[in-house]
């Protein structure tokens, strides 16, 4: 028999707070985590853009019995308890809900994430020929270290609306037989001047040009014969002419597949995990959630990486519009008062990633208030920067509610900020939902190499995030 604990040890156990390693929670949990993450990696590979991710989610929702809310609204059909409905907003954002036993006006349990990620967008007039090569001009999207995004393989995704109004989907570089593209970099032998520059200037925004080809069209009388040959190939494959680039949304994203990292396969390396890791866990939690007392809702927004702007971002009317339709189809006397009452009675976990402590760059973290890979889901009471500017700062009551829920459900969690005070900072969609009167708390997955072409997460953290979202959706806050 082991030695009995001393009085001091027992007191410390009772009074002190220590984080836990989620890997030590049991083999059964680990097996579930590995199984869940196989599905997660498939989501990452199939949904590399906001449009693609929304389409993947819609297929899953239809397969699981969700009905299109817009069609039901047009038909004027009333919704009953247990109804499952969804709405796709302009192909780039998603909202879906399970109606609970209580009236919608009594409040909703919401989870939310964003499905856009940093990337390289193609400009509207992009195609040009120079020095025996054809390239596309680009404009990077979101906060990136530009030097990380050169000399890697890219795939090209998006849509083109042609002159006759028809739309064609583009996806080149994901199939093993497809060509890929790249952004070239300067060789070390000639980079003496380049290497003297600041990191922000080593590669310029206008220098991120996507290499498209080098073979000329066979006609000696023509100029820009290589460009013409590329246009010919695009026309044969997609019916495009050069002017069609003006009405296109094309994104260059890393052509890597999601892969296990580490000899123990405990980590995932992939593009776009900020914030599709949280989007996936929210979706899976909703699909597995049982109908409960309160209505459960998930919202996946666009444009978070550039401020949540536009008609598909969290600052838009999308969430309010979706909830107003739920209220209209479940109540006899809809009004704005009813909508505001619902929002004020609602709770939300805003799911977004948090930078995990990287052993190679420890100096930017305040370790007592930092997130760590393997320590489970991470809670952020507040975000923002420079004195919490632009933060969503959750109340003590909201923190207490979620802390008790997670502890009761055996969910491994810890709390963190986004680096040292005055070191940097950032934001999520939380503040825009909080502005509506909803009680909101940020809660997500620790991540390494955020905003790089290959981000890294821990499988056990992904699983704990999924468990956390499901427990919250099924809960009944007082």
Provide a compact summary of the structure.
The protein is of the alpha+beta class. 29% of the residues lie in helices and 24% in strands.
Kindly report the spatial arrangement of strands forming the biggest sheet: 1-2-3-14-4-15-21-17-19
Number of strands: 23
* Alpha-beta content class: alpha+beta
Task: Assign an overall shape.
Answer: globular
Counted up, domains total 2
Percent helix among the residues?
Answer: 25-40%
What composes the largest sheet? Answer: 9 strands, mixed
- CATH class term of the largest domain: Alpha Beta
Write the SSE topology.
Layout lengths: L6 H9 L11 H20 L3 H14 L3 E2 H7 L8 E6 L3 E6 L9 E7 L4 E12 L2 E9 L11 E9 L5 E6 L8 E3 L15 H4 L7 E4 L11 H14 L9 E7 L4 E3 L5 E4 L2 H16 L6 E7 L16 H11 L7 H9 L2 E4 L3 E2 L21 E4 L3 E2 L10 H13 L4 E3 L9 E2 L3 H5 L4 E6 L1 E2 L7 E4 H15 L5
Parallel strand pairs: 1-2, 4-14, 4-15, 15-21, 16-22, 17-19
Antiparallel strand pairs: 2-3, 3-14, 5-6, 5-11, 6-10, 7-8, 7-9, 7-11, 9-10, 12-13, 13-23, 17-21, 18-20
Helix pairs in contact: 2-12, 7-12
Describe it.
- The chain has helices at 7-15, 27-46, 50-63, 69-75, 199-202, 225-238, 273-288, 318-328, 336-344, 396-408, 430-434, 459-473, and strands at residues 67-68, 84-89, 93-98, 108-114, 119-130, 133-141, 153-161, 167-172, 181-183, 210-213, 248-254, 259-261, 267-270, 295-301, 347-350, 354-355, 377-380, 384-385, 413-415, 425-426, 439-444, 446-447, 455-458.
- The two termini are 44 Å apart.
- The longest helix is centred in the N-terminal third of the chain and has 20 residues, at 27-46.
- The protein is an alpha+beta fold.
- It is globular and about 85 Å long.
- α2 crosses α12 (459-473) and α7 (273-288) packs across α12 (459-473).
- The chain has two domains: 19-117 and 271-473, 3-Layer(aba) Sandwich (Aminopeptidase), CATH 3.40.630.10; 119-254, Roll (Aminopeptidase i, Domain 2), CATH 2.30.250.10.
- Its cofactor is Zn(2+).
- It comes from Ruminiclostridium hungatei (Clostridium hungatei).
- This is M18 family aminopeptidase.
């Amino acid at each position: 028999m082991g030695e009995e604990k001393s009085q001091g040890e027992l007191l410390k156990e009772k009074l002190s707070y220590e984080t836990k390693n989620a890997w030590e929670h049991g083999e059964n949990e680990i097996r579930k985590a590995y199984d869940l993450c196989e599905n997660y990696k498939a989501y990452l590979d199939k949904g590399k853009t906001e449009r693609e991710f929304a389409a993947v989610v819609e297929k899953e929702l239809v397969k699981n019995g969700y009905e299109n809310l817009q069609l039901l609204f047009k038909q004027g059909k009333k919704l009953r308890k247990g109804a499952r409905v969804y709405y796709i907003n302009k192909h780039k954002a998603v909202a879906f809900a399970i109606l609970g036993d209580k009236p919608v006006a009594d409040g909703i349990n919401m989870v939310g994430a964003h499905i856009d990620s940093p990337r390289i967008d193609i400009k509207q007039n992009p195609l040009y020929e120079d020095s025996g090569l054809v390239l596309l001009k680009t404009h990077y999207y979101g906060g990136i270290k530009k030097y990380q995004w050169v000399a890697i393989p890219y795939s090209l995704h998006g849509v083109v609306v042609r002159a006759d109004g028809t739309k064609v989907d583009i996806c080149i570089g994901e199939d093993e037989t497809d060509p890929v593209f790249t952004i070239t970099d300067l060789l070390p032998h000639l980079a003496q001047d380049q290497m003297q520059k600041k990191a922000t200037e080593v590669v310029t925004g206008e220098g991120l040009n996507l290499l498209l080809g080098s073979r000329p069209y066979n006609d000696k009388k023509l100029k820009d014969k290589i460009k013409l040959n590329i246009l010919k190939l695009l026309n044969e494959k997609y019916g495009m002419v050069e002017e069609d680039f003006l009405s296109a949304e094309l994104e260059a994203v890393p052509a890597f597949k999601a892969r296990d990292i580490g000899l123990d396969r405990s980590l995932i390396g992939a593009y776009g995990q900020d914030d599709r890791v949280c989007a996936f866990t929210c979706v899976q939690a909703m699909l597995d959630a049982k109908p409960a007392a309160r209505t459960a809702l998930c919202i996946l927004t666009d444009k978070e990486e550039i401020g949540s702007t536009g008609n598909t971002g969290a600052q838009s009317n999308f969430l309010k519009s979706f909830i107003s339709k739920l209220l209209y189809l479940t109540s006899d006397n809809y009004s704005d008062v009813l909508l505001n009452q619902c929002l004020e009675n609602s709770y939300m976990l805003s799911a977004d990633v948090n930078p995990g402590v990287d052993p190679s760059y420890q100096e930017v973290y305040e370790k007592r208030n930092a997130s760590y890979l393997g320590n489970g889901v991470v809670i952020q009471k507040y975000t923002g920067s420079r004195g919490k500017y632009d933060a969503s700062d959750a109340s003590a009551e909201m923190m207490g509610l979620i802390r008790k829920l997670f502890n009761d459900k055996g969910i491994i969690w810890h709390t963190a900020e986004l680096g040292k005070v005055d070191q940097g900072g950032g934001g999520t969609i939380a503040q825009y939902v909080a502005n509506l009167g909803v009680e909101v708390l940020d809660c997500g997955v620790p991540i390494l190499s955020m905003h790089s072409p290959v981000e890294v997460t821990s499988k056990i953290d992904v699983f704990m995030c999924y468990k956390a979202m499901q427990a919250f959706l099924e809960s009944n806050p007082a």
